[in-house]
Specification:
With 496 residues, the chain is of the alpha/beta class. The protein folds into 2 domains: 4-240, Rossmann fold (3-Layer(aba) Sandwich); 255-492, Class I glutamine amidotransferase (GATase) domain (Rossmann fold). It is 32% helix and 26% strand. The chain is built from 17 helices and 28 strands. The strands form 7 sheets. A 9-stranded mixed sheet has the order 14-12-15-17-26-25-24-21-22. A 7-stranded parallel sheet has the order 4-3-5-2-6-7-8, with helices on both faces. A 4-stranded mixed sheet has the order 19-18-20-23. β7, α7 (161-174) and β8 (179-184) form a beta-alpha-beta unit.
């Protein structure tokens, strides 16, 4: 397939560290651009759900995560060039510090991503208690990697006009870079409040209209939109290489549910779109208010989120919890990540209280004060299961404050942890019937086998159910009838 070109005006918003103000600046920039009638969309560097959710709020568009560790550089470049706007503004929000990556060389860092995308960098600097030292910090970034195209500086948390004047003169005279933004000191907790895992999600913020008004009201004095657009437009055109055609899994006539409410928000758009491209029908379900699972689901996808902050509401909805447990015991394929695993446990302990959950998994969960797993994960599938063949190597990520409380007998798992913390000591992917529950988050672009496995499990379950419902069939359902059907899936046994 011959490559095409995409102009894609773009900037990478980077910082010297985490919490430097990258998300606030990115949101303000996107909102300002759209206020001026300029089409704008966003991308997020790394395996992040919360910041990506905020960027989606600001743009109204699906936000793609760009992660060279998970996907490799070619897939990242293709993902960006495919979804970037050819006109207007494309904002890539970095993560952590500009050069912070996988190792001491900054591999897979924001800087490496910017060079891969040939994107100019805007450096956000937390200016708290800084004056002339800012020049040393910016010069250090310029010197460490001269091939990186740093094109402007945004001063964040400025304490006044004198402070702004000193910093601007220092940066522009010693670094040769323009200051293209000046953000006054704003009490962060009142604007983008944080908690464990990062920011409060957009779904739980509660004052989005006020936040948008605040960001837009900062106006031209905070962000020099004209100059930023000139910088973005100076980026070279990108070649768009179409992926080689591959046989897509056939999901026609399948119905796959997924939990989607303020308790469960951690889904990559690429995962959901991969299911839809197969022809399967996606069914959003709210665990907070739905009375039960739809009766004709062929599989259920349970993403991550914050079940702990919604624990009382989830516990109160006993009818829904019971319907999930019944469906799991009857063999419904359920793929649960992190928050989904927590919901499937017997109970969830949070801030001194214990809340009943679905009771599918034979253990209890406790949410701790410190992270129990954070970073990239590598798993080796070493036992049969409905989703992945034995021997498959999976790469993803985890970020969880919860842990499985000790039990007398360890539950069955199907993966050895080669990198990361996992669910149990050296293990992840708890299996109960056709339920996969792990702290491991998968990205469909990085691991297309996930889509294939989920749809294959769903199709086998659907076929078994049709056989059960056939008046001539001798295999019967669990509702007062006898028998079961089994199918070999991905090297493992799927019980429907």
């Amino acid at each position: 397939m011959m490559p095409t070109t995409n102009f894609a005006p773009r900037v990478v918003v980077a910082g010297l560290s985490g919490d430097s103000g990258k998300t606030f600046v990115s949101l303000a920039l996107l909102l300002r651009a759209q206020q001026q009638g300029i089409p704008a969309t966003a991308f997020k560097k790394g395996p992040d759900y919360i910041d990506a959710g905020w960027l989606r709020w600001a743009t109204g568009n699906a936000v793609r995560n760009l992660d060279t560790y998970l996907m490799g550089p070619q897939k990242v470049a293709r993902l960006f060039s495919t979804h970037a706007f050819s006109q207007g503004l494309n904002v890539v929000e970095g993560n952590r510090g500009l050069f912070d990556g996988f190792d001491e060389y900054g591999t897979h860092s924001t800087a490496q991503l910017a060079k891969l995308l040939q994107a100019p960098v805007l450096l956000v600097v937390d200016s708290t208690k800084l004056t002339h030292t800012i020049a040393a910090l910016v010069l250090g970034c310029q010197t460490l990697d001269p091939a990186l195209d740093i094109r402007g500086v945004i001063l964040n948390r400025i304490s006044g006009q004198r402070h702004e004047r000193i910093l601007t003169r220092s940066v522009e005279s010693h670094c040769g870079l323009p200051v293209v933004g000046v953000i006054p000191r704003i009490e962060a907790g009142t604007v983008l409040p944080g908690r464990h895992l990062g920011l409060v999600t957009a779904e739980e913020h509660g004052h989005l209209a006020d936040l948008a008004a605040l960001m837009v009201s900062l106006g031209p004095s905070a962000l020099d939109l004209k100059r930023i657009l000139e910088i973005a437009s100076s980026a070279p055109a990108l070649e768009v290489h179409g992926e080689k055609p591959r046989s897509a899994p056939n999901g026609t006539a399948l119905r796959i549910g997924y939990l989607r409410d303020s308790a469960f928000t951690f889904y990559y758009p690429d995962n959901l779109e991969a299911i839809e491209r197969s022809g399967a029908r996606l069914e959003p379900i709210t665990a907070l208010s739905a009375e039960s699972l739809p009766g004709d689901l062929d599989a259920l996808y349970m993403g991550g989120g914050f079940p702990e902050t919604h624990a009382a509401a989830l516990a109160a909805n006993s009818a829904f919890r019971n319907s999930v447990r019944r469906a799991a015991l009857e063999g419904l394929p359920i793929y649960a990540e992190c928050g989904g695993l927590m919901f499937l446990a017997r109970s969830l302990r949070w801030r001194g209280e214990s809340f009943p959950m679905a009771g599918v998994l034979p253990f209890d969960i406790e949410v701790c004060a410190a992270p129990q797993g954070h970073g990239y994960v590598e798993l080796l599938v070493d036992r049969p299961n409905p989703y992945y063949p034995v021997g498959a190597k999976l790469v993803g990520h985890e970020f969880h404050y919860s842990k499985i409380l000790p039990v007398s007998e360890a539950p069955a798992t199907v993966c050895a942890v080669k990198r990361g913390a996992g669910a149990l000591e050296g293990r992840d992917a708890v299996m109960v019937k056709n339920v996969w529950a792990s702290y491991f988050h998968v990205h469909a672009v990085a691991t297309p086998e996930w889509t294939t496995g989920l749809l294959r499990a769903a199709r086998s379950y659907a076929a078994g159910r049709r056989k059960v419902s056939s008046p001539r069939g001798r295999v019967t359902s669990a509702s007062g009838q006898r028998g079961r059907c089994e199918a070999q899936i991905g090297g493992g046994r799927l019980i429907a």
